[in-house]
Design goal:
With 559 residues, this protein is of the alpha/beta class. 36% of the residues lie in helices and 20% in strands. It has 3 domains: 3-89, Alpha-Beta Plaits, CATH 3.30.70; 172-317, Succinyl-CoA synthetase domains (Rossmann fold); 331-494, 3-Layer(aba) Sandwich (Rossmann fold). It contains 19 helices and 22 strands.
């Protein structure tokens, strides 16, 4: 019959790697059947109970160290517990030097003032405080810790943005900065592909595949899994994108995320269009509007994101369509006679324009309140039955579209209007004979307006397609032959990114020698040292031994 013995060490903190090693060492002792070594949180106590390792008489708090041993006899269990101090005192065989270690972040900064990064992997309820202290010292933060509140994450990232600093995380598992891997990172060659990752294992999958394909990584910046949520609003992702955009060593950027908020994804994709570099996007669960829009390439898997990025190295993309550019802060209006063309255009533009509305929406939130009145960016299917009562279809009769065209052009907030011209048997015999003069008159009055024409047809059609195109171009409209081309053009125009009101993150954050202070898991420090990075490790302990009331009092006294 087995015997279970336990020991509680009040306020004794050890990082989770130390606890894991102690548990393994205890389980390997003679007569021991199983062992559990955990901080006595409710979740850990529950796990011990499920594994029949929690004695009923345990009275502990979350900041206590709970050590439980199940053995073949009481004597074996007692002997095992008697070996705990010796096992804890053993030096790890990592080969990492045991220099003097500070016991606070303040002391670590004094010891290594040139450190530009602080790695934080302490328990979640303390992590925000440590990260905030690092920001106060002017350091970028790699925040591995989870169980950080959403409110703390938002506050930390806003503070960092105002200071021109970066907070990667919380729950950021992977990053590569200037060739040095942080957290769980693979050894990959240096190269010209930069990555922004709101997924740790996703980042590892892409960077590893890039390496396997012969490519290399400039930097991989993690954001934490919640960064693309609506509440956080991709603060770190936007900062990371700007950094890689300005980094001359990064030629192609990859964006990877778990399912993002649709509005946040739209804004980030729009910002990516302004990077003036090819950007590969793979947002898991987010419907890609096209395979390619302007500078943006959409992947359908992590491996394909790596494939496309490697192929794009040394490629150049140019703006198509013409030199006349509208104000990117104005609105776009699409006036369609073809419902499918309107739908495909909306599908493509919803990734770049927000908000966008239609009388033929893809999602309910895109529904236009009044089909007779556009708002913000709008796409109208004028062939919808709403407009067809007692009226010919707009592929036969231009009257309704000409009236709506004049209405939209009269709005000074409108900067671009798109018309489709669908040729072929049964359609208007000569549509541009009526449309082109109106377009010319409008553009004579509105020199700040751009009118686009999407011409669908062949050289066999009775309307003479070349004649239709020539008239449109003579009227100073920009002509396209496919939805893909026009969506790409519009996306590039309206992706112009406003200058941020916040300080830019200095590029040397990525390019200078990586130097760090590690607070938390010692394995992260060991990893840095094995990569020849300059780093020191803080022997961190919870404030006031984990006594929250006392810690709060001490903090008030300090302030």
């Amino acid at each position: 019959m087995s015997e279970t013995e336990f020991e509680i060490r009040k306020g004794a903190y050890y990082d989770s790697v130390v606890l894991m090693r102690l548990q393994r060492d205890l389980a390997a002792l003679p007569g021991v059947i199983d062992a559990g070594v955990v901080m006595a949180t409710a979740a850990n106590r529950e796990l011990l109970s499920v594994n029949d390792l929690l004695p009923g008489s345990v009275n502990s708090s979350p900041d206590d160290l709970l050590i439980v041993v199940k053995a073949d006899s009481k004597n074996s269990a007692t002997n095992a517990l008697g070996n705990v101090d010796e096992l804890l005192s053993r030096r790890k065989s990592s080969g990492v030097s045991e220099d003097f270690r500070p016991h606070s972040l303040n002391a670590a900064v004094n010891q290594l003032p040139e450190a530009n990064w602080v790695l934080v992997s302490v328990p979640g309820r303390y992590a925000a405080s440590v990260a905030r202290e690092a920001l106060d010292f002017g350091k970028h933060v790699f925040l591995y810790s989870d169980n950080v509140s959403l409110e703390d994450e938002i506050a930390l990232k806003k503070t960092a943005r105002e200071k021109g600093l970066l907070v990667m995380g919380p729950d950021c598992g992977t990053a590569i900065i200037n060739g040095i891997g942080l957290g769980f990172a693979n050894r990959v060659r240096r190269g010209q592909i930069g990555l922004v990752g709101a997924s740790g294992t996703g980042t590892q999958a892409v960077t590893s595949h890039v390496h396997a394909l012969g490519g290399g990584i400039s930097h991989a910046i993690g954001t934490g899994g919640r960064d693309l949520n609506a509440d956080v609003n991709a603060i770190t992702a936007h900062q990371a994108l700007d950094l890689l955009k300005n980094d001359p060593g990064t030629k192609v950027i990859v964006l990877v995320s778990k399912p993002p908020s649709s509005e946040v994804a739209t804004k980030l994709i729009s910002a990516a269009q302004n990077a003036n570099k090819p950007v590969v996007v793979y947002f898991i669960g987010y419907p890609a509007p096209a395979r390619k829009i302007g500078y943006i390439h959409f992947a359908i898997s992590l491996s394909e994101a790596a494939d496309i990025a490697v192929e794009l190295i040394n490629s150049n993309l140019k703006l198509a369509g013409g030199d006349k550019l509208p104000n990117p802060n104005s609105y776009f209006r699409g006036l369609f006679s073809g419902g499918t063309l309107a739908y495909e255009t909306l599908l493509g533009l919803q990734a770049s324009l927000s908000p966008i509305y239609s009388n033929a929406p893809i999602y309910a939130h895109q529904t236009l309140k009044d089909p007779l009145k556009s708002e913000s960016h709008t796409i109208i299917d004028l062939g919808d039955e709403y407009f067809m009562v007692g009226r010919l279809h707009p592929m036969l009769d231009n009257d309704l579209r000409i009236r709506r065209l004049k209405q939209e052009a009269a709005d000074p907030e409108v900067g671009m209007i798109l018309l489709d011209i669908v040729l072929g048997d049964g359609s208007h015999p000569d549509p541009t004979s009526e449309l082109a003069p109106v377009i010319k008159d409008i553009l004579r009055e509105r020199t700040d307006l751009t009118i686009l024409a999407l011409v669908i047809g062949t050289d066999e059609d009775p309307q003479d397609i070349q004649l239709q195109i020539d008239r449109l171009e003579e009227a100073n409209s920009v002509v396209f032959r496919s939805v893909t081309e026009v969506v790409e053009y519009i996306s590039l125009i309206f992706s112009t990114h406003k200058s941020s009101q916040f300080p830019a993150i200095a590029l040397d954050s990525l390019t200078q020698e990586f130097t760090a202070i590690n607070v938390g898991l010692e394995t992260f420090y060991e990893s840095l040292k094995l990569q020849d990075a300059q780093a020191i490790h803080v022997e961190w302990r919870p404030p006031a031994g984990g006594d929250e009331k006392l810690a709060s009092l001490l903090a008030r006294m300090k302030n």
